[in-house]
Amino acid sequence: MEFVRKVSQLLSRNISLNIFPTSWLLNVSSDFRSCSSFLNDVESWSSDDVKEWQFNKVKGIIVGAYNRVPAYGALYDKNGFNPNELKSFSDVRQLPVIDKPFVKKHYSDLVDVSLADRSVVRYTGGSTGTPMKFLLDKEKIFFEKAFFYYIWKKHGYEIGDKCLFVKGENIKGSSGRLAVRDGIYNYLKLDSNYLNESSNLPDYDRAIKKFKPRKVFGYPSAIYQLALLYSRSCVKPPEFDLIMLASENTYPDQIAFIKSIFSCDSVFFHYGHSEYAVLATKYHDNDCLGFNPFYGHAEIIKPDGQLAEAGESGEIIATSYSKSMPLIRYRTNDFAVVSGYQSNDYMRSYLAVDKIEGRLQEYIVTEDQRLVSICTMGAAHFEELGPVLDSQYFQDEPGRLVFKVCCPEDEYTSTLEKNIKRAIERKLENKVKVYVKNVPDIRRTSTGKKIMIEQKLDINQYL
């Protein structure tokens, strides 16, 4: 495989590969290679072949969990289910769902002890304020890399391509610079902690145009901020062939803005989560997302427990293919609208959704206790923001919302504040009282991700 060949070349040239964990290098020719080969092989499978493979995979996970994982044995016996009798996916949908509190409460009883030594400990990101500990099969980490390199190549990225990397790196603190080369990956890494200061654009721009990347990889919020800097200056923005967004939610207005600034029609994004249970990637000819059946099993379930059909919204219920601590019919608290779209390419057997409506914590609660997704509001991109370079929602009581903005003091006027306030209240049909607050910076997670809304309310109460 080309990727393995390039890693071998680096090793033979005695280049330091500290960036790669030793275990990763040892497995790159086995787990990574076998998964990559499998993904190429299944492209020719019929929809019936895919469905049969996926059902057998899911049934195997469920039966194994029933026999070897105490929490599932007790749960299924209590509900009168014998997984050995599963005949179809409609039978699978009769199994009870689990959620994050269930996993936290029954952690020890959710582990397959016979596989525990072949697993690694992981935690969810904690964007809801309550990170969850879980186990993950070691090979799943290498499979994850294989899935992404496979799909990125489909969209035009090859290992070794010059790529701008904007993904929460803390560079200036150690080097004094805002950009640094990574010779192993052929990346130019930007420090995204200074993208809310217009005075830094010349340094960013000089490094980008010297490096001349044609691909970009990073957090949507960081790439959006870079686009904002260019849009509010007289500096000509670079042009890119492909922009790959990762690790944060994406919002249509943000994506459209990024495309226009960087003259790039090809923007790739995906849906995934820390639990490694399901993965949906963008189709090539539209902005729908397709859930990869070889990564995990996804169901879009309405509040009444029925499958959502085209045009209907439902919660994403995930079944992972990790065996050391299976997540079976796991509530993600993320919602999607089902699409009737079907492609004719390698994604033809994927479950299509028009959009991810929003993670549960990304809803605003109105005074009459309705839920409004910030995705439908344009998130943090609308024309009334004017000179604002960064923003974030905050809510701790129904019908009241604080909108934090990062704006140069000399450009933050009462008129700007009123326009922003009026725009958001209009989007919320005047059912939320909005307060605008200018702040020095917006809090990020420890990995540099942006949380678009700090939601302190328990949204489950308003479903």
Descriptive overview:
By secondary structure, the chain is α/β, with parallel strands linked by helices. Among the domains are: 156-265, no CATH class; 366-462, GMP Synthetase, Chain A, domain 3, CATH 3.30.300. Helices cover 30% and strands 23% of the residues. The chain has 13 helices and 21 strands. It has helices at residues 2-12, 22-27, 31-41, 47-68, 70-78, 89-92, 100-105, 138-154, 172-175, 201-211, 220-231, 252-261, 414-427, and strands at 119-123, 133-137, 163-169, 179-182, 187-191, 215-218, 242-245, 267-268, 270-271, 280-282, 289-291, 296-301, 313-320, 330-338, 351-359, 363-365, 371-373, 390-397, 400-406, 433-438, 453-455. The chain has a seven-stranded antiparallel sheet with strand order 9-10-11-15-14-13-12, covered by helices on one side. A six-stranded mixed sheet has the order 4-5-3-6-7-8, with helices on one face. The protein has a four-stranded mixed sheet with strand order 20-19-18-21, with helices on one face. Helix 3 packs across helix 8 (138-154), helix 4 (47-68) crosses helix 5 and helix 11 crosses helix 12. The model is unreliable at 10-26 (pLDDT under 50).
Show the helix and strand layout.
Blueprint: H1 2-12, H2 22-27, H3 31-41, H4 47-68, H5 70-78, H6 89-92, H7 100-105, E1 119-123, E2 133-137, H8 138-154, E3 163-169, H9 172-175, E4 179-182, E5 187-191, H10 201-211, E6 215-218, H11 220-231, E7 242-245, H12 252-261, E8 267-268, E9 270-271, E10 280-282, E11 289-291, E12 296-301, E13 313-320, E14 330-338, E15 351-359, E16 363-365, E17 371-373, E18 390-397, E19 400-406, H13 414-427, E20 433-438, E21 453-455
Parallel strand pairs: 3-5, 3-6, 6-7, 7-8, 18-21, 19-20
Antiparallel strand pairs: 1-2, 4-5, 9-10, 10-11, 11-15, 12-13, 13-14, 14-15, 16-17, 18-19
Helix pairs in contact: 3-8, 4-5, 11-12
